[in-house]
Amino acid sequence: MMCKDRATHRVVVLAVDGVIPFKLSLASRIFGTARTADEQPLYEVITCTLDGDSVVTAADYSVAVAHDATVLATADTVVIHPSEAMVKITHPEALPPTVSHSRRRFVRLGNCCGV
Prior knowledge:
Layout: E1 9-14, H1 21-31, E2 43-48, E3 55-56, E4 62-63, E5 77-80, H2 86-89, H3 97-104, E6 108-110
Parallel strand pairs: 1-2, 1-5, 5-6
Antiparallel strand pairs: 3-4
């Protein structure tokens, strides 16, 4: 199921251990500030982790988010930032089923300023 309000595009950011905190904030800053001429938001940005628990960043702290990977099934676009854990999730069998399902239904997968 994609975002119900077609005027608002849902972007889901998947945070994984080792993410650079600055990069984790980019999708929200880029998409979250975009507005229509009458100031309505064009995007809804939601951040999740695979299990809903905190992620350990590449800095000296963790980040807690409100959602687990089940919200990936509602995404119009999925953003996955590079991290020290990317090796763990780059193999298709390591991705949660909702990400694999999203790839089959042509949801955009993106990476902001990553390598």
